[in-house]
Amino acid sequence: MRIFGKDGTCAAIFLDFDSSVAGVDLVTSEVRAVTSWLGRCGARWIEDYSPNGGRHVYIPLQERVTFSQARDLVEALGTRYRSLDKTPHQNLLHGCMRVPGSPHKRGGHQELAMSLNAAYDIARRPNAVSVWNTMNVELAREISAVRALRLEQPLTVLPALEERSQQVLQGTGRMSRPMLQLAMTGLYDVNRYPTDSEARQAVLAGAAAAGLSVTDVQRRMLQGHWPGLASFYVRYPSRHRAKALKDDWANAVAYVQKTRTSQDGKNNARKNPTSQPSTQGGGFTGSAVSLTPDAEHRFIRTWRNALRLKEPRYEDSRNGLARRMILRALGEAAHMTASRFVEFGVRSVAVATGLDHTTVATHLRALRSESEALVTLVESGRGTKGDQYMLTIPEDVKPAAEDLSWRKGKIHALRPVFRELGLPAAFAYEALEHSSVPLRSVDLIRASGLSRTALGEALEVLAAWNLITRGKDLAWSIVSAASLKDLAERFGVLEAVVVQLKKYEHDRTIWKEWLTKRAHTVAELLSPTDDYPWEEFEGPPDDSTLAHMAFTATG
Questions:
Q1: Is the overall model pTM greater than 0.85, yes or no?
Q2: C-alpha angle with apex 503: 522 to 387, nearest 5 degrees?
Q3: How far is CA 172 from CA 67, 169, 184, in A?
Q4: Cα 122 to Cα 41: distance, rounded to the nearest angstrom
């Protein structure tokens, strides 16, 4: 059955956990986790299972929600649960779910995982609006992340959006293909239309320019031909939707007439009537966020300020130092790809930080679960792709981070030589590297975030290998003639890194072969007893190696 109605809304959230992703065991554990979360939110749900081990969780809602609201929530949950298939909620026209009792394509039927009476009671008394609001509050950070990801990657379903030659402005009754797609699907390029209000005004302006009447538009909405446009008006009570449409239509007609009659070259030169006319609010309240490489580098430098402000919460311990280095590795990768979105697996980060990949996985889980976290998991790794993270500036330090001056120089993950010299030496060297003047020990404690004991030992190690020197004023500075790379070669660290890279390359080969064997089949009972060597891997080996980039900046 279809998830969304003709008005572009849905009466329930459908969660489809797919056993073909990583087996029945993962589906079982993730369904247990999501139902536990729903219980904490005060929600009630219906659950069923399919013959191949997949499971469905249905969350009935007292009040219908729009396509975009439902999609945001399901995509946000998808960042937490790897086996959750988000695609049914990403297609307004064709998103469907197989309900309990339906025949399954592999034989058998969908079967309830609860009594029929219990399922009927939940369907008869759906979840209140307060439960929906609680779920959104719980997922606020993940929802923000998936929205930001869509902002960086404009939708490809509207390839002709910028082709103004396709716009028909002579009242022929034909609208452009992009505007028809927007009206039918409700999907739009957020770089062009920041909110639903701008998107719906663009559709109405296109319809007015094509010679349609407001009655034509209303009929298409009511008959279900334009569910995307209809979904933009769900925010209004039903008795006010007709008036809102008429007000928007008046604005759209006025905008098109002004565009056609204006003789000002700046305002008239082949102006596109779907460019962003005024909304009912009397103008735009925001604009699309610029995600050009320059803008991204500026964001990353501000994020580095936030990292400096947040670092005192990490204790001067092995775990604290490791997490600080992992954050630096992600920051370095973000700079090198010119994007706040980082898609590298735990093995890549392990090479860049000198840690074991299982340790990296543990620390990443801890980092993304922190309150006011510096990183957010956007999407779990699938196939040969690693987990995708987004650098996040916590709200509690955002004003201060934006006011701070950017720190000069690059951000580094663990450079090879410090695999031998240790993490405290790496942080002490970094503090001196970013300082324009020599620093005394008391200043280095604050700049490096190390304890007095750890800093003292680190300085002794660095001085012993002639990487730093102490002046007559007892202040420390870097020896410019020293080469970290030469010292790493002397220690034989580079050979150890090569061994680690080869091991992980072998891991990837095994993983790809395992995926290839199952490229055209669905594993019905995939479990730790299958032929995939689960004991050797705690997650899919990533396909990219951060170290290949990191070494280019090592000197």
A1: no
A2: 50
A3: 31, 8, 20
A4: 15
Q: Report how far residue 461's alpha carbon sits from residue 464's, in angstroms, rounded to the nearest whole number.
A: 5
- Relative to beta strand 84-85, strand 9-17 is antiparallel
- Report pLDDT digits (tens) over 385-441: 667 788 888 888 888 888 888 877 788 888 888 888 888 988 888 888 888 888 888
What is the rounded distance in angstroms from the CA atom of residue 458 to the CA atom of residue 472?
20
Residues in the chain: 555
Residue found by looking up tokens 């090479």 in the block:
351
CB 164 within 8 A of CB 272: yes
pLDDT (tens digit per residue) in 310-329: 888 877 688 888 888 999 88
CB-based burial label for 229 (10 Å; 0-12, 13-18, 19+): buried
Residue entry with tokens 């058998």: 108
Distance CA 172, CA 181 (A): 18
User: What totals of helices (H) and strands (E) does the chain contain, helices first?
Assistant: 23, 10
Torsion angles phi and psi, residue 391, rounded to 5: -65, 130
Question: Which run of H or E residues covers position 10?
Answer: strand 9-17
- CA 14 from chain centre, in angstroms, equals 21
**SS3 of residue 468 by DSSP:** strand
- Measured from the Cβ of residue 317, the count of other Cβ atoms closer than 10 Å reads 11
- Identify the CA nearest to 426 among candidates 437, 413, 445: 413
